[in-house]
Amino acid sequence: MQEIAARLGERLEGEEIAIVSRTTGGEIPKLGVPRDADWGELLGFLMRENLPGHYPYTAGVFPYRRTGEDPIRMFAGEGTPERTNRRFHYLSQGQPAARLSTAFDSVTLYGYDPDERPDIYGKVGNSGVSIATLDDLKKLYSGFDLLAPNTSVSMTINGPAPMMLAFFMNAAIDQQVEKHLDETGGWKEANKIVKKYFRQSQPEYSGELPDGSDGLGLRLLGITGDKVVDAETYDRIKRETIARVRGTVQADILKEDQAQNTCIFSTEFAMRMMGDIQQYFVDHGVRNFYSVSISGYHIAEAGANPISQLAFTLANGFTIVEYYLARGMDINDFAPNLSFFFSNGMDPEYAVIGRVARRIWARAMRERYGASRRSQMLKYHIQTSGRSLHAQEIQFNDIRTTLQAMYALFDNCNTANNG
């Protein structure tokens, strides 16, 4: 035992890398490790905390944060798809990665189409983008290569999440069809098909393209890629696209039933659709896209404190795990596709909400379910708390939000945005 502990101590020292302080010029450790030479203390540290990237992942699921890229998401959604697309491009200028997070209007969230009805018309494009068709989704993310390794998309939608996910996947596939036609010189024949397909004019992007946009995704508006390339080519592009595309769809119907209430189907039917999507992901090798974002943010906004927020969120996560297992899926086939979403408020417990969540999840996955290392890693998004902001001391709201963002950053969140 002493020999094992000694080796563990050596590993701790070996992984402590010095960096140069910008203010003093002196060297400071990148990782803080215990200096106690007692092997029992070292073993206790490794079992409870350990280094980032090591079980139980208390300090983080990766050894180090990426250099040159902060874990930020550009949260936007207002008006038409074109308006929000311009906002995304504006926010992404000069950023090393395009991490787009999408807010949808209440009409879209409840599964309605835009309409002149009095109860709908005033809400179209209000506090979120209006998306009703595949073309809308193509315009929304146009100019962003959805298969680029530095691009990922998060969609905050739950009731109609399966339909929005289908829009997104087809938009990504059609982008790659466009690129295939560019590379093979196939646009001459494709344009003949497109022209013949439309009795009148083809749908268009409204207004000027934003700076930085090359219009990718807009040449097949009103038509899908399977109409302009042969079936074998389309199937190949489809397989490659869904295997590589990166992003998240929220799709957490349990917290909708508990807190936010954008329920348009019964909980049972919505869960069945969630299971169908995850089964499709398993069958077709979709590994880089999260099929659900198990959310505590809305539970917190509805009144939960940080402890009850985490308890409800993890309970929902384990409920989804048990349901997927009951459908016959293997834990290691679906657990890596699960992600989490927490709120950060002003309570001191928020400083460690990620640490506690990662440790509980890792232990449950390993000890109860026998899951693999990748399945044990809890990855989560943080949004600063809207509930903590108020008009009585509005001048301090920026400070509150900044402190909450620092909480999240120091707790090694995977992505974050300020609300």
Describe the structure.
- The protein has 419 residues and is α/β, with parallel strands linked by helices.
- Helix content is 45%, strand content 11%.
- It contains 17 helices and 11 strands.
- The protein has a 5-stranded parallel beta sheet with strand order 3-4-5-6-7. A 4-stranded parallel beta sheet has the order 8-9-10-11.
- It is globular and about 80 Å long.
- 40% of the residues are buried.
Tell me the series of helices and strands, N- to C-terminal: HEEHEHEHHHEHHHEHHEEHHHEHHEHE
Count the beta strands: 11
Mean pLDDT: 90
The first-to-last residue Cα distance is 49 Å
For the report, how would you describe the main beta sheet?
5 strands, parallel
**Helicity, as a percent range:** 40-55%
Unreliable stretches, pLDDT < 50, 5 or more residues? 3-7, 12-16
Instruction: Count the DSSP helices.
Output: 17
CA radius of gyration is 23 Å
Main-sheet strand order equals 3-4-5-6-7
Q: What spatial form do the alpha-carbon principal axes imply? A: globular
Proportion of strand residues: 5-15%
Which class do the helix and strand fractions yield? Answer: alpha/beta
What's the arrangement of secondary structure elements?
Blueprint: H1 2-14, E1 18-20, E2 27-29, H2 39-48, E3 74-76, H3 81-92, E4 98-103, H4 106-109, H5 118-121, H6 134-140, E5 151-156, H7 161-184, H8 187-197, H9 231-244, E6 247-249, H10 253-260, H11 267-283, E7 289-290, E8 292-295, H12 297-301, H13 306-326, H14 331-334, E9 338-344, H15 353-368, H16 373-376, E10 380-384, H17 397-410, E11 415-417
